[in-house]
Amino acid sequence: MTTSGTVTHAERIRATVVEYLAAVADGSGADIAALYAEDATLEDPVGSAPRTGRAAIAEFYRALEGSRRATELLALRVTGSCAAFHFRVVTETGGRVHEVEPIDVMTFDDQARITSMRAYWAPSDMRQR
Amino acid sequence: MTTSGTVTHAERIRATVVEYLAAVADGSGADIAALYAEDATLEDPVGSAPRTGRAAIAEFYRALEGSRRATELLALRVTGSCAAFHFRVVTETGGRVHEVEPIDVMTFDDQARITSMRAYWAPSDMRQR
């Protein structure tokens, strides 16, 4: 399916994941939610009540806005219109630094917007530095 | 939920993942399938036709039996009755060595048997050594 000069769907999905981690590090809740489809779902962590729709998703990420953040992609696998990736997120709020390395699973639409996100991690995976 | 002397569900799930990787490295198709619930499903890679039931799952893994194999767990996250993990699998068949590092997502029953497995990787992730 790869032709010189064209961008494959897998490449667009990879680009969205990279944009996502950049937005989690630097963006507002609305910036991050803009990478999602309008009717997307978010379940973070897996087992918690899912949030549906871009407004609820923006609200979820707004909690990050008061902290300094850094992200790093550790591993990314793309198959079909799905991705799974392992990453590190470090947040600093009021002098406290927390680090966690979740594994997220996402699905994407034809425009490589996120249609669902499920985050695999537990509070016991969180480290304070 | 953690009480001294008891084994939590998360710990049992972690043990099943470790057993799974040991069986993928050393076991028969039936050995690996024995870690699955009777009516479990397997989708490897994600996007391919799922296989249902322990017999179909044993058949899937039987393809490994002719090769020397090694596995290594790179990262594991457990939340509720779900796990996601990144691992390396190296197979040697007729002098050819292939290596791939998928991210797998599994769900588990109350006995920590695997009820579903979905493997995120693409043929382009496979390296020949």
TrEMBL record, chains A, B:
Keywords, in A-Z order: Isomerase
Leader peptide range in chain numbering: none
DNA repair keyword on record: no
Enzyme class: isomerase
UniProt keyword annotation of Membrane present: no
InterPro entries: NTF2-like_dom_sf, SnoaL-like
E.C. number(s) listed in UniProt: 5.3.3.1
GO MF assignments: steroid Delta-isomerase activity
Domain SnoaL-like: 17-116
Domain of life: Bacteria
Descriptive protein name: Nuclear transport factor 2 family protein
Source lineage: Bacteria, Bacillati, Actinomycetota, Actinomycetes, Mycobacteriales
